[in-house]
Amino acid sequence: MNRLAYLLPLALAACGPTTGTPVASTPAPARVAAVPATRPAPPPAGGFRPARVMNMPGLEGVIGADSAALQRRFGPARLDVWEGDARKLQFSGEACVLDVYLYPPSAGATPTATYVDARRASDGLDVDRAACVRALGK
């Protein structure tokens, strides 16, 4: 008789339901010490936290620009979305879609571009940000 035939009942028994009681050969689960949740640092006393500014080659003239400068360069924004003091402008063309995120550099200041994201218009896959800026720029 085939050796596998002897092993089949053992393999099937391993698939059966359990009673929830640990088997003697199963080690008890290790206790993990509770790790306190990490929280971001609280905002300064005035409640304003400046945004981190992206710094990549090819984005000069975009990063740091305000909405008027961006619209002079790329034309009217396809989308203009405000959320609190942050703003997102979206510019699109055949080559790509460019999302520019603007945050105020200080409390009460005019928002300027701090981050850029780019994707293909056809399928949404990421593309080189600087290449998209060049493709959409005037």
Oligomer: single chain
Main beta-sheet annotation = 4 strands, antiparallel
Poorly predicted regions: none
CATH fold field value of the domain at 67-136: Nuclear Transport Factor 2, Chain: A
Strand order of the largest sheet: 1-2-3-4
Helix tally? 3
Q: How far is it from the N-terminal to the C-terminal residue, by CA? A: 80 Å
Pairing-aware structural class of the strands and helices?
alpha+beta
Mean pLDDT, to the nearest integer, reads 76
* Beta content: 15-25%
Signal peptide: 1-20
Organism: Tsuneonella litorea
Protein name: Lipoprotein
Keywords: Signal
Give a brief rundown of this model.
The protein is of the alpha+beta class. The chain is built from three helices and four strands. Helix content is 20%, strand content 21%.
Structure description:
Residues 1-20 form the signal peptide. Keywords: Signal. This is Lipoprotein. By secondary structure, the protein is an alpha+beta fold. The chain has a domain at 67-136: Nuclear Transport Factor 2, Chain: A (Roll), CATH 3.10.450. Helix content is 20%, strand content 21%. The protein has helices at 3-14, 67-74, 129-136; strands at 79-83, 86-92, 96-103, 112-120. β1 and β2 form a beta hairpin. The chain is globular and about 35 Å long. The mean pLDDT is 76.
